[in-house]
Amino acid sequence: MLSASERETRPDSAGFVEKAAPWIVTIASLVAFAAAVVLMIEKLMLINDPTYVPSCSINPVLSCGSIMESDQAEAFGFPNPILGIAGFGSMALFGTYLLVGASASRWLWLAAQAGATFAFGFVCWLIFQSLYRIEALCPYCMVVWLSTFALFWYLSLANLAAGRIPMPAFLEPAANLAIRFHGALLTGAILVVGLMITEAFWDYWQTLL
Amino acid sequence: MSQNLKLSATLAFLALFMVVIYVAAGGNDTPEAAADPELTRADTHFLTKAPDDKVTLVEFLDFECEACRAQFPTMERIREEYDGRINLAIRYFPLGGHQNGMNAALAVEAAAKQDALEDMYVKMYETQAEWGESPDSKADLFASFAEELGLDPEQFAADVADPATKERIAKDQADGAGLGVQGTPTIFLNGEELPSMPSYEDLKQRIDDLLQE
């Protein structure tokens, strides 16, 4: 029964993923771009006035201030939001370009894939640093995490579905499975991060109960 | 409903279920709340005291908390400016998530026994970037701070190890928990909990208003 339904659902999901990807890439990039702009502005205010309390420093856990003052906030020697503004800005352009119906060459798709893969890796590192090293959360950063997850996931699946990423035959079932369960897997990944946040700041959340 | 939506909903319920189980299992242990919490007690440490009790500022803090370190310069500025004109007390509230929050509190309390509370308090925040967020115990580093401050190292070690020192900190924590302290820094001005991380200007305004009453 599963194999029969698989034959039916796989092309459906692949088609859906390919149609949804430009929308998700565009919307997620715009959202992340906006968050990066806000973070950059807050960072500039903080540089001008070290006593400035960022708008998202709400309590000891939700505290952009302690995040922005960390070394990790300048992972490459300059404020991270600069990367976000350039990267998500380009990605939003790419998404819009696809949305208006233009077809992109394979190298453009792969360049976007490279950017999204880097963004995803960097975000995973930042999540780890935020939860277990700095031990604070920054709401705008979390918006970027979420957008990057969605962007990376659907861009990757669209590239896989269209066969733009060369793939050894033995990995194809896994790729098909990922395409078929696109939404559930993304939800699962977000829930895992959510559970990590719940656990890491348990002491704090408990006091709010 | 599509397969993906159904599966996503199932996963979300599963996650919620895990949290519920975790809560039911007791989660992490947090300090017991005192039944009759007090903002200050006879043994509370004051950084400065006023002849009158017009203004009393009490800060619950954790030496490993970065937000407390961010608040520290403001508190020092207030202490300098209102030295001898207001009561300014600090109370220990080491958070469970910090490996060295308790070690640091023990070191400060042990220093207090040798009349070096202020020096150690300042030292902790000035050096926090060097030892904060470490997964390893920094008790040895704190002992070296004591030596730098010219304290008797043997007495210091004995006081850090003394169960009474830990109990003294637990008492502060229990008062804090009883007063509804959720995180650090939590600052009370004449019994009223201030918004998280008040600025110098905000504190100054509030204190001046109270002093003029």
Fold blueprint:
The complex is a heterodimer of chains A (209) and B (213).
Chain A lengths: L1 H47 L15 H5 L11 H20 L6 H29 L4 H23 L10 H9 L1 H19 L1 H7 L1
Helix pairs in contact in A: 1-3, 1-5, 1-6, 4-5, 5-6, 5-7
Chain B lengths: L2 H22 L20 E4 L7 E6 L4 H16 L5 E6 L8 H13 L3 H15 L7 H10 L4 H9 L1 H16 L7 E4 L2 E2 L6 H13 L1
Parallel strand pairs in B: 2-3
Antiparallel strand pairs in B: 1-3, 2-4, 4-5
Helix pairs in contact in B: 3-4, 3-5, 3-6, 3-7
Structural description of this entry:
The complex is a heterodimer of chains A (209) and B (213). Chain A contains eight helices and no strands. Chain A is mainly alpha-helical and 209 residues long. Chain A has one domain: VKOR domain (de novo design (two linked rop proteins)). The longest helix of chain A has 47 residues. The radius of gyration of chain A is 19 Å and the shape is globular. Chain B has a single domain, classed as Glutaredoxin. In chain B, strands 1-3-2-4-5 form a five-stranded mixed beta sheet, with helices on one face. Chains A and B meet through helix 7 and helix 8 of A and helix 1 and helix 2 of B.
Task: Please supply descriptive tags for the structure shown above.
heterodimer; A: about 210 residues; mainly alpha; de novo design (two linked rop proteins); 8 helices; about 75% helix; globular; disordered N terminus; B: about 210 residues; alpha+beta; Glutaredoxin; 5-stranded mixed sheet
